[in-house]
Design goal:
mainly alpha, 8 helices
């Protein structure tokens, strides 16, 4: 019976620690992200939808929902707002009539690229907070354990989408 108590205590402390650390990181990221996209009359969800669509060359609402870690209705409703602003369009694919896809318009692509052009990593709290680790180890933390946990919680598809977006960013950077 003592083992169950220890196991409970260990799980409770671990869950509490992850929750508190995640919330602290997210609040910092959220504040920086909101300040970054506010001049473009965007909120975080709208910017994330534009970014995912841009990086994936168009995407389904379900992909946006999964990768944006938002409910399908949230992804759809914010996408509708972006459509009304002329920043993206809705469509069905010939080979997939069940899913709704969004594609950036030229105006949407231009706006997203404008937001990316003003992003300054040196202003990001998370980057600033990680610089000592980068100096010490020669690179930013890779979070392998967190990636393993996210894979278990959200599945391989989430990490596949993440890797596709990272590949797209690297490709754009190399072309520039």
């Amino acid at each position: 019976m003592e083992n169950d108590k220890d196991s409970f205590l260990e799980g409770a402390i671990y869950s509490h620690k992850v929750a508190q650390l995640s919330k602290a990181l997210w609040k910092s990221i959220e504040r920086d992200w909101q300040e970054w996209v506010k001049p473009f009359n965007l909120n975080i969800n709208e910017h994330h939808i534009l970014w995912v669509s841009y990086r994936l060359g168009g995407s389904s609402i379900s992909e946006i929902s999964k990768f944006g870690v938002m409910h399908v209705s949230t992804a759809f409703n914010f996408s509708k707002k972006l459509e009304k602003r002329g920043l993206l369009t809705f469509s069905k694919r010939e080979n997939d009539k069940r899913n709704t896809y969004v594609d950036l318009t030229d105006e949407g692509k231009k706006l997203l690229e404008e937001t990316l052009s003003v992003f300054d990593p040196s202003d990001a709290s998370i980057v600033k907070g990680s610089l000592k680790l980068k100096e010490l180890y020669g690179k930013f933390p890779e979070f392998l354990e967190i990636i393993a946990i996210v894979r278990e919680v959200y599945g391989d598809e989430y990490l596949d989408i993440l890797n596709r977006t990272i590949t797209s960013i690297e490709k754009d950077y190399q072309e520039d």
